[in-house]
Fold:
Amino acid sequence: MYRIRFHGRGGQGMKTASRILGKAFFLEGYEVQDAPRYGAERRGAPMFAYVRASKEQINERGIIRHPGLVVVADESLIAVPAAGVMQALRSDSILLINSMEKTKLWQDRLNFKGRIIALTQSPSGKGWDEMRFIGAICAGGAARLAGVIQETTLTLAINEELAHLGSDVVQTNLEMALTAFNELKNDTGIVKEGKPVRADDYRPPSWIELSWEDPKLSAPAIHAAATSEKLITGQWRTMRPVIDYSRCNRCWWLCSTFCPDGAIHLDKERYPQIDYNHCKGCLICLAQCPPHAVSAVAEPVAEAQKREGE
Ligand code: SF4
Ligand code: SF4
Structure:
């Protein structure tokens, strides 16, 4: 059975990647499961999607524990333990990282015995602009590494899965996916199929007696104030809210009121200021602002603009 995990951030298209790959496997005659798994948070938060594909009945359920292939759309997640990118990788697993860094660098950086491949080529040469199509790129790369999906099948899967977005969007996604598919030609079929789990193999766990604890000991307790301030969640953002102060009329500070993270405070003139260390980029402030004073800027573009201004 093929077990494949796609790791990215909410809004990056990992669910789309799993759907495209799942559909392509299905069209090749496989039984398929594909599903996304989100945390409690929103756009920009780490999430993953997974695909199981087998010629036999699939008895496994739930998240994939031992993937044959892990595809990483956003390399910054590798350093975030909670994202679980490296979780349960085995020495025969393959790690495909969308990165402008070379494979050698990742091999030196990660204590991982399996094969690492960096998708370093930027299909259009536009670098970060391609993040909009990263779901299709990841699906194309995974299809090639699995080795059992033909180019025509991948094309059909993308056409079917993205049809609702219109022909122009489908065409660009297709080009990106096929560029990744062709770039990895020399690694066709390197992902190994894992053993399927059979219902006969199931052994119920033995009975476990849980000890009884005094609620005073077992209930969660907060031991220090303001600890959440130390958790820098701003790095989850894919889009940055930017306030145009020439349009902001300091209404009733709806942006600040609705911000679920308390990331907008008022300065001395009572203009809203965004705390980018804790803004997760959900863009609720943008949706609420009556005079449309808040706009969304792609995070890499915002970073580049900031650097230019310094
Ligand atoms: S500042 Fe805006 S985008 Fe950031 S967390 Fe608050 S509501 Fe969301
Ligand atoms: S909601 Fe818009 S107009 Fe109101 S304070 Fe916030 S940015 Fe200004």
